From TrEMBL:
Biased composition (Basic residues): 417-430
Descriptive protein name: WDR20 protein
Gene: Wdr20
Domain of life, source organism: Eukaryota
Keywords from the UniProt entry: Repeat, WD repeat
Ranges of Polar residues composition bias in the record: 378-394
UniProt xrefs under Pfam families: WD40 (PF00400)
InterPro entries linked to this entry: WD40/YVTN_repeat-like_dom_sf (IPR015943), WD40_repeat_dom_sf (IPR036322), WD40_rpt (IPR001680), WD_repeat_creC_regulators (IPR051362)
Compositionally biased spans, kind Low complexity: 358-367
UniProt organism field: Gymnorhina tibicen (Australian magpie)
Residue ranges, annotated region (Disordered): 343-394, 416-436
WD repeat placement: 199-231
Gene3D superfamilies: YVTN repeat-like/Quinoprotein amine dehydrogenase
Length: 528
């Protein structure tokens, strides 16, 4: 109904609006709440979905000088200010999130590389906290706060080197994925404070992270311009995606398009309408998780899985990706109904599919369930998008094998290396001058710096030719400034850019609901 609220920050200002999605643009002249800060500016925020009602909402706001504020923008209350005297951490807040399932616990990450666990009921004290080591491991340490009475922070995590750029809780709330400026993804068991697994970026820092709806896969993005898919169960990289031309700032799974289908092996033949019907047998997000859990337990017909995720970057582009069974389970035979490449989507969009914006050609976000990215001959010869690729020679070749098993996924390792040896990976030529964004080396756990040359080619960071390379289903320039937000909702996708445009893109099939656009000079936004 009218339950959605939108919060965004621009410069020193924070705005809070009723959000109507695809139905109507927000009335920018009537914010529910607007705050202007002096001496510091908001950098990130998070709603508590557990306690949110129509009359009240708990909103955490992180600031550039290290403080965290708890406010209720509906009741216009400023509840509390944490780290007010900056005795806990003086560096910028990079990420703040409520602990899943908790009304009072929240986690805050800083550019110092530290994370702190707070309880809204406790004070922060008038002196700097004293810490006691709780647990230490490879490149991380966790301390408890030593004091006579319970005070914030409850825990201090020191993770990796340089800034801790983002973290994300698993869907069940038990695990925590962190990405840092040192290029590492680290996944922890949150309660037992154990390191579950790690991964290293191909190049540079990792900037963003997200979990699949079932918690089986993690996707990261960063300064190597790649999206990287990591298996939580196997603790290994299973694919990389190359479509962005600059740093990837946000990655997010689309729970409404992630599909699980029980499909009989069948060969496709028929009209566009039949092809469209094939795709719309997918389940919606509310049952996605339970269906995904059936994936490995079913004994009858094969269950086919397609995960959809998106990414936005500093290159102003939105990319959509499908993670399909030929990538997830390369040693299992594919259902033939699922092996049509996105070449077919690009050349013959299903009838009646609506575009995502007024100038769309109708196939930007179509038939999400079953597309398989075509194989790539070389890692550095990617077309800009699947659509522009439709008429090229390699696509026609790939289209010829569309009714068979995806060629790239079934290549032997030797074959793949043969195809890659003719051109080395040259993606780094434009990045050599970039230095680490954070010079803050406080509280380093270990002085031994990881040599990138030693991790390349290991399970931590496989070579480009050793893992499948995904191509985006669509890669579209949607802004003039770098993109900072990507949120998937049931009937739309929300994006925002540094220039201050928050755009609502209607999903295909939402009749007569074209994109509405709010300008608010907003570098970041979130939807509750």
């Amino acid at each position: 109904g009218n339950g959605d609220r939108l919060c965004f920050n621009v410069g020193r200002e924070l705005y809070f609006y009723i959000y109507k999605g695809v139905r109507k643009a927000a009335d920018l002249s009537k914010p529910i709440d607007k705050r202007i800060y002096k001496g510091t500016q908001p950098t990130c925020h998070d709603f508590n979905h557990l306690t949110a009602t129509a009359e009240s909402v708990s909103l955490l706001v992180g600031f550039s000088a290290g403080q965290v504020q708890l406010i209720d923008p509906i009741k216009k209350e400023t509840s509390k200010l944490f780290n007010e005297e900056r005795l806990i951490d003086k560096s910028r807040v990079t990420c703040v999130k409520w602990v899943p399932g908790s009304e009072s616990l929240f986690l805050v990450a800083h550019s110092s590389g530290n994370m702190y666990l707070y309880n809204v009921e406790h004070t922060c004290g008038t002196t700097a906290p004293h810490y006691q080591l709780l647990k230490q491991g490879e490149s991380f340490a966790v301390h408890t706060c030593k004091s006579k009475s319970t005070r914030n922070p409850l825990l201090k995590w020191t993770v990796g080197e340089g800034a801790l750029n983002e973290f994300a809780f698993s869907p069940d709330g038990k695990f925590l994925a962190c990405v840092s400026q040192d290029g590492f993804l680290r996944v922890f068991n949150f309660d037992s404070v154990e390191l579950h697994g790690t991964m290293k970026s191909y190049f540079g820092g990792l900037l963003c992270v997200c979990w699949s709806p079932d918690g089986k896969y993690i996707v990261t993005g960063g300064e190597d311009d790649l999206v990287t898919v990591w298996s939580f169960v196997d603790c290994r990289v299973i694919a990389r995606g190359h479509g962005h031309k600059s740093w990837v700032s946000v990655v997010a799974f689309d729970p409404y398009t992630t599909s699980v289908e029980e499909s009989d092996p069948m060969e496709f033949s028929g009209s566009d309408e039949d092809f469209q019907d094939l795709h719309f047998g997918r389940d919606r997000a509310n049952s996605t998780q339970s269906r995904l859990s059936k994936r490995n337990s079913t004994d009858s017909r094969p269950v086919s899985v397609t995960y959809r995720f998106g990414s936005v970057g500093q290159d102003t582009q939105l990319c959509l990706w499908d993670l399909t069974e030929d990538i997830l389970f390369p040693h299992q035979p594919l259902s033939r109904a699922r092996t049509h490449t996105n070449v077919m989507n690009a050349t013959s969009p299903p009838a009646g599919s609506g575009g995502t914006n007024p100038g769309s050609n109708g196939n930007s976000i179509t038939t999400p369930g079953n597309s398989v990215p075509p194989p790539l001959p070389r890692s550095n010869s990617l077309p800009h998008s699947a659509v522009s690729n439709a008429g090229s020679k390699s696509s026609v070749m790939d289209g010829a094998i569309a009714s068979g098993v995806s060629k790239f996924a079934t290549l032997s390792l030797h074959d793949r290396k043969e195809r890659h040896h003719e051109k080395d990976h040259k993606r780094n030529h434009s990045m050599g001058h970039i230095s680490s964004k954070s010079s803050d080396k406080l509280n380093l756990v270990t002085k031994t710096k990881t040599d990138p040359a030693k991790t390349l080619g290991t399970p931590l960071c496989p070579r480009m030719e050793d893992v499948p390379l995904l191509e985006p289903l669509i890669c579209k320039k949607i802004a003039h400034e770098r993109l900072t937000v990507l949120i998937f909702l049931e009937d739309c996708i929300v994006t925002a850019c540094q220039e201050g445009f928050i755009c609502t893109w209607a999903r295909p099939g939402k009749v007569g609901l074209l994109s509405s656009q709010n300008q608010a000079n907003s570098p970041s936004g979130t939807v509750v």
